[in-house]
Specification:
- The relative contact order is 0.07.
- A hairpin with an 8-residue loop joins strand 1 and strand 2.
- The chain has a two-stranded antiparallel ribbon with strand order 1-2. Strands 3-4 form a two-stranded antiparallel sheet. Strands 5-6 form a two-stranded antiparallel sheet.
- The protein has 612 residues and is mainly alpha-helical.
- Helix 5 packs antiparallel against helix 6, helix 6 runs antiparallel to helix 7 and helix 7 runs antiparallel to helix 8.
């Protein structure tokens, strides 16, 4: 059956039936299923990783290519990958690795990719190429090094090379856009895979949204890396006016008990002026000239209550004023990059006549809605480049980094999501809910990362360390990440002889569904042993400010619990909790909004599109 399906050009179907790892790996590469191939490559070794790297590079999965080169120790290709993807930070790490390995050629190549003339000079000098080192120093203006190398040349009777006065600076291109994987189309899951997994064709898990964004189970194989603590310390242990419909009839229907809203002045001042001018012109029997339509950016800013539309129209001041009124945004610096994306994504520039500036054309959303006013009819709102789907992909990256213990990378991705959300226009209620959920997820994970960082700074304070590791377990994380947090807390409490807390963490750990997976068998065994021994001891060596039975929110500034019944204030944007003393200060979680200001909250949809 497998051979028949493969011969007929259906390797993706045959993939569901094959059991042999080598055959499964070949079929996965044939149908382009990088995820399955990567899972199998862990068991097949370096040769499989090399083949996987070639296929992943063809599809544009740079992250998998990076992992492949790391597994097979192909440092030269890894450096070049970082060069073409603009990852200068990791390129500098490769330079350090080459120095540790003592590979002078790799050091020179990485220095060349980075444009580091000083490092190239050092490499040339270390390899005895004094003449080339001298030329590098002189050409790049390294005066002190050039004088020192000149002395070495003269002392060793080496002819001083002639300096080319017409030398040009050789520098690598500056990365404009740093990206990981190539953008891919979103495709639906094959029906066959649902059937084989015991699901139905109309299963809810085929719907999009943040609720289906989960950390990849395979990422947890490497969860012990990065900055996750080791548990080997155990011994075994988000007005337009509607057309008036039969107003008198509506009034009769409403009755006298309801307040009359006909006296509300919902018109704009400019509309009144235009109407008065038209009436005066009619009275004077003068000619009525057609009104000139306002430019699209003016229409966007006058009719939209969403900050993204104002940024797309180039009106930064009104956009920031909206954000200040809606979410109390007072620090616009983190928002700059995504405000620029909103502006650039709403238009294009067409070249005109010679010596004339290009003309800007405007791109509009497909879900356009027109105003009821005659002059504004058929005017659409701008295209918004920031999409919910992009943010969900960023969340996947953050989950992956969090799992592997790369907390700084996860924090950067989560902060970028918080900076982008105000400039995303939701097109449905589902997207509105996704944006609100994104805010909650980012808040919880950023708080967890800040707690984890604080734990590393109080290594000498046992009580504070135990408090922080306990608070860490109360962040609303995915169950797989909560398992890692509970395991860390259990190990720390047991080591410091806080057996009551250790037993509590062990019980919570054993209640998680993931604990019964085969790869967590060792963790389950340790938790059972800790629970057994802790119940025998039944005492805490240290008294800490932590009561698991009393619900609390964590003060994101002091990292202290705010127990139920205690007054607290929240960030107007991300919802982080603080004590009242922190009122009118900048939120440390999002770094955008002021704490304790009562606002209407984030606007995720334009008023004319709500209710869809």
């Amino acid at each position: 059956i497998i051979g028949y399906l493969q011969d007929k050009g259906y390797p993706e179907v045959a993939l569901h039936f094959v059991q042999n790892n080598k055959s499964k790996f070949k079929l996965a590469l044939a149908c382009g299923n990088i995820q399955v191939a990567m899972n199998v490559a862990n068991e097949l070794g370096d040769e499989a990783w090399k083949q996987l790297g070639v296929e992943a590079l063809r599809q544009g999965f740079h992250e998998v290519v990076e992992m492949s080169y790391q597994k097979t120790k192909e440092f030269e290709r890894l450096s070049f990958l970082y060069l073409i993807t603009g990852n200068t930070e990791k390129l500098r790490k490769m330079l350090k690795i080459a120095d540790i390995r003592g590979d002078f050629m790799s050091r020179f190549h990485n220095a060349l990719y980075l444009g580091d003339a000083t490092e190239r000079m050092n490499v040339l000098e270390a390899t005895g190429q004094l003449s080339l080192a001298y030329l590098t120093a002189v050409t790049h203006g390294l005066t002190e090094d050039a004088e020192r190398l000149l002395g070495l040349l003269e002392s060793n009777n080496i002819p001083v090379p002639t300096i080319d006065t017409n030398a040009e600076l050789l520098q690598p291109p500056t990365p404009i856009m740093r990206a990981e994987n190539w953008p891919l189309l979103t495709v639906t899951k094959p029906i066959l895979s649902d059937i084989l997994n015991g699901g139905s064709i109309d299963d809810d898990n085929r719907k999009g949204g943040i609720s289906n964004i989960q950390a990849d189970d395979d990422d947890f194989h490497d969860a012990q890396g990065g900055d996750w603590a080791d548990d080997d310390m155990f011994d075994d242990e988000d007005l337009d006016e509607k057309p008036k419909k039969n107003v008198n009839k509506d009034k009769e229907t409403e009755g006298k008990g309801w307040d009359d809203d006909d006296e509300l002045d919902l018109s704009d001042d400019e509309d009144d002026i235009v109407t008065n001018n038209n009436n005066n012109n009619n009275n004077d029997n003068s000619i009525n000239l057609p009104e000139a339509n306002a430019p699209l950016p003016v229409f966007w800013c006058n009719s939209s209550s969403h900050a993204a539309d104002h940024m797309a129209g180039g009106s930064v001041s009104t956009g920031l004023n909206l954000l200040n009124r809606q979410i109390a945004a007072t620090n616009p610096t983190p928002l700059k990059a995504y405000a620029r994306i909103a502006f650039l994504g709403a238009g294009g520039f067409l070249p005109g006549l010679p010596l004339m500036p290009p003309n800007r054309c405007y791109l509009t959303r497909t879900d356009n809605t027109s105003s009821s006013k005659g002059n504004d009819a058929n005017k659409a709102y701008p295209n918004i480049a920031n999409k919910v789907s992009h943010l969900l992909e960023m969340l996947k990256t953050a989950y992956k980094s969090f799992t592997s213990g790369q907390f700084q990378e996860a924090h950067t991705a989560l902060t970028n999501i918080l900076s982008a959300v105000p400039f995303v226009v939701a097109t449905s209620r589902q997207e509105t809910n996704d944006l609100k959920d994104l805010l909650n997820v980012c808040r919880e994970y950023i708080t967890a990362i800040r707690v984890k960082d604080a734990m590393s700074t109080v290594t000498g304070d046992t009580i504070r360390s135990l408090e922080l590791v306990s608070y860490f377990t109360h962040c609303n994380l995915q169950s797989g990440h909560l398992l890692l947090a509970l395991k860390t807390a259990m190990a720390s409490a047991f080591k410091n002889k806080n057996f009551i807390n250790a037993a509590s963490f062990a019980r919570r750990l054993l209640e998680l569904p993931e604990i019964n997976i085969d790869r967590n068998e060792d963790t389950k065994s340790k938790a059972q042993k800790v629970l057994q021994k802790s119940e025998k001891e039944g005492r805490n060596e240290h008294t800490i400010d932590y009561d698991e039975r009393n619900p609390f929110n964590l003060d994101c500034y002091t990292m202290k619990p705010i127990y139920k019944g205690t007054n607290s204030i929240k960030c107007s944007y991300c919802g982080s909790h603080y004590l009242p003393d922190y009122k009118d200060k900048l939120c440390v979680t999002c770094g955008i909004s002021t704490v304790g200001v009562d606002t209407m909250g984030l606007v995720t949809q334009n008023a004319s599109t709500r209710g869809k």
